[in-house]
Amino acid sequence: MKRMFNIFLMGLLALVGVTGCGNDTNGDGIELTWLLSTGSTAERGKFNDLVERYYEQTGITVNIIEVPSGDRETKIQSMLLSDEPIHLAKTTGVDLTFIDRILPLNDIYDEFDFFEGHEFRINDGEDVVGLMIGLSSVGLILNTDLWEQAGVEFPTSTDEAWSWHEFLGKLEEVIDHSDAQYGMVMDGSEHRLRAFLYQWGVTGYNEDFTGTYYGSELMREPLEFFVNMNDDRIMPRSVWLGAEDSISMFKTGRIAAHMSTIGRIADYNETVSDFNWQAVSMPYEVAPATNHGGNVLISFNETGLEEETKDFIRWLYTDDYPALLADFGWLPALEGFEDIEYPFRNEDWQVYLNETIIGSEMSAHDKMGERWDLKDSGWNQVNNVIIENVRLHLSGDITMDEVLENISNTYREAGFEVLSSQ
Amino acid sequence: MNQHKIYKTWAFLFTLPNIILFVLFFAIPAVLGLVFSFTNFNGFSGEFVGLDNYIHLLFHDEHFMGVIIRTTIFALIAPILGYLVSLGLALLLSDKDLVFGTVAKVLVYIPTLMSPVVSAITMRWLFGENFGFINHLLETIGLDPVKWSTDGYAAFIMVILVGIWGAGGFNMILILGRLRSIPPELYEAAKIDGASVWQRFRNVTIPMLKPITFLILLLGTISAFKEFAVIDTLTNGGPGMATTFYVLYMYRIGFERLLIGLASAGSMILFIILLVLASVQTKLQKGGEIS
């Protein structure tokens, strides 16, 4: 009896183990797998609603796999290597490591009026492999209570935008005459720093993408200006030197300005009630400029469902594109939707949209350079090289000369010529 | 004999899942890591490069030696300080008649149950340089706030404090268990011989705690060498590279730059370091057996 019981127990354990290892598959109907990252539970809910609507209209199931943004490329690689089904992904760029599995989307690109220059291309520009579903960009949000308390006016249009030197002076005034503890915070991200560099006229690549200006003397003045701002008065050093969260700091209501992405509008609309805030035009030293973020759709070949995947991508642009943009808080990637009405804080969205329309040239050109036939040139080597060296300089480990030298050496190793003038 | 074979078979079957998991999730990845360390594998393709990765790390990487030295210092200081704190807590809470002793032990143990990332996020708030609670307390009592994020030494100390907080409860439980197993006759004999409290502690308690002390220090040192989640969440390796320890540095090489071959070589070097460390500590550990 005891022996029988033991055999039964072992069998039960084995069955549980096998069941636990098995995949839950639905043999009926077409299923696509969409890998993405979201910023919140609410955003995940919106994606769920989106794919549910697609199922109701077409009977095709789109399974969402959500991963943290930092693990996204790793997850894609592992799924491709292990032949797990993955049909499309929403990323911030095209990781050229798995370039052989990426499906060209030229036909979709030709069908719609995309804003030129935001698509991702390879093979000398011949193949479009990544399409923006909606744009996000960098902008400036002010704590207007502090500015009004200090009696300092702020720009209400791009024509009134400050230069960075003027903006610095205004921040000093606000700090001196209000409860502001710091002038501004900028997210500790190279993406934001690049927007800053564009505003100083420093772009990444020359016209034919054979050379770069990163690491050149052109970067010295803006980088020194940025480093000097990190003085624990204008900007807290703990954001760029430590791991302090700029978003949480701005929400304390003690910081006059926050340079961050469009995602802050929805975030602050929900979470900030202690003070008034508003998006305004960013400062610029040479020309208005912003940097775009990624809501890039890429899809994969050798899945057997390439056409179904493309149909889903088309549906995203045709179903109710304005509603999609308003729901997710994205700027339009297609022309003709500039007068879109967002469900809340419409004026703030319009500021970001305006910044995108007038200041996107350098950003679009840069992104083209980062993805154009970079397969053998080691794009991952240059990833974040600017922010890493700026941080080392902020901590006193290296000089500005060494910052520029390290950046230029890294880009040279990646196959670019470092140019000295634009 | 037949019965013995049956017992052996059942024993093998019961340990089989563990063996399978060990092979799948440790042995195979370890062998793969060793193989990758001799290639320039980037996740998709790679070629054999011999010892190039090891040579690059040991002789050409400008940050590698600094990372090793920094990690070694951390791995020497943190476990020792952590042990001393845990020992103090165990001694304080070892009295069976202590009021609310159980509650105190549970409170001290709770951090051990928390995810390291959750602990680090919580601590990031507490140690926030600009709006953190600890600096707020310091300013309230008239002291200057500490630059926890922007000063390398302060950030290093913060990481050690968080580590002690996280592991203190677990180590305390281990020491408490060992304390309770020390024969009381030893203390009585020492008392009869006129030993003071300190002398009894030094000549009875400390020697009898030797096995558990060795275990805690060994595990703590290995854990310190492998620390990643807390560092990445708490300081992201900053300011500069002040808290960039070994595993975080390898992570950046392997997952951010996709130089998986190079990162694998780094992992093998770490394996050798830990092997040497464990061997040395094992040789130094003697005594403290309770018969």
Question: In a few lines, what is going on in this structure?
Answer:
With 422 residues, chain A is of the alpha/beta class. Chain A is 44% helix and 14% strand. Chain A has helices at 2-21, 41-58, 72-81, 106-111, 144-150, 164-177, 190-199, 220-229, 237-240, 246-251, 263-271, 306-318, 321-328, 346-358, 361-371, 379-382, 385-394, 400-413, and strands at residues 31-36, 61-66, 88-91, 120-122, 127-132, 136-143, 182-186, 211-212, 255-261, 277-280, 292-293, 296-299, 417-418.
Describe this structure in words.
The complex is a heterodimer of chains A (422) and B (291). With 422 residues, chain A is α/β, with parallel strands linked by helices. Helices cover 44% and strands 14% of the residues of chain A. In chain A, the strands form 3 sheets. In chain A, strands 2-1-3-12-5-4 form a 6-stranded mixed β-sheet, sandwiched between helices. In chain A, strands 6, 7, 9, 10 and 11 form a 5-stranded mixed β-sheet that branches. A two-stranded parallel ribbon of chain A has the order 8-13. Chain B has 291 residues and is mostly helical. Chain B has 13 helices and no strands. Chain B starts with a helix and ends in a 7-residue tail after the last helix. The model of chain B has no long low-confidence stretch (mean pLDDT 90). The chains are: A alpha/beta (422), B mainly alpha (291).
Which helices and strands, and how do they pair?
The complex is a heterodimer of chains A (422) and B (291).
Chain A: H1 2-21, E1 31-36, H2 41-58, E2 61-66, H3 72-81, E3 88-91, H4 106-111, E4 120-122, E5 127-132, E6 136-143, H5 144-150, H6 164-177, E7 182-186, H7 190-199, E8 211-212, H8 220-229, H9 237-240, H10 246-251, E9 255-261, H11 263-271, E10 277-280, E11 292-293, E12 296-299, H12 306-318, H13 321-328, H14 346-358, H15 361-371, H16 379-382, H17 385-394, H18 400-413, E13 417-418
Helix pairs in contact in A: 5-6, 17-18
Chain B: H1 2-36, H2 52-60, H3 64-92, H4 101-113, H5 116-126, H6 133-140, H7 152-180, H8 184-192, H9 197-208, H10 210-225, H11 229-234, H12 246-256, H13 260-284
